[in-house]
Amino acid sequence: MSMLYNLRFASNDQISQLIIDPDTIEEWLFNEESAVDAKLEKSWHGIHYLLTGSQWEGKEPYCYLLSGGETIGDIDVGYGPARALRPDKLKDFNAALSEIDRAELRKKYDKKSLLSNEIYPSVWNQGSDDDNFDYLYSNFVTLKEFLREGAQKSYGAIVWLE
Length: 162
Prior knowledge:
By secondary structure, the chain is α+β, with helices and mostly antiparallel strands. The protein has one domain (5-161): 3-Layer(aba) Sandwich (Hypothetical protein yfbM fold). It has helices at 12-20, 25-30, 44-52, 87-98, 102-108, 111-116, 129-152; strands at 5-10, 38-41, 70-71, 83-85, 156-161. Strands 2-1-5-4-3 form a 5-stranded antiparallel beta sheet. α4 crosses α7.
């Protein structure tokens, strides 16, 4: 079963309401009118690792894919609870990632390190390094576009794995 990473814009008021009443998170995420604003598919762990050099933690704001922000209750929405990044955190994440270009990210790509640290989806020894990096980079661009739009509109984000 795949672990797919999703991001959805949320206003600060929406985030506050979800934090106060976490029992509404599933309805908010999965009702028919809800739309995922960005998907990182299976690249989320690899991107996090390239940004932080860590499996699960890392320096803020680079760690915000997997840690940081506020957990929305303890309701499992796929692979654990959803997390909220308030608009100020999203802006910080955007500012940090806007400084990273393809060449800088490429320098951090190391197949052996991805494999030895068991970075999901653990397929780094399949296909070429160029193809594997291109997969990560194309999803990194998706993340940067999401963050840029959210920062421009003063949105926060709800993030989750399903």
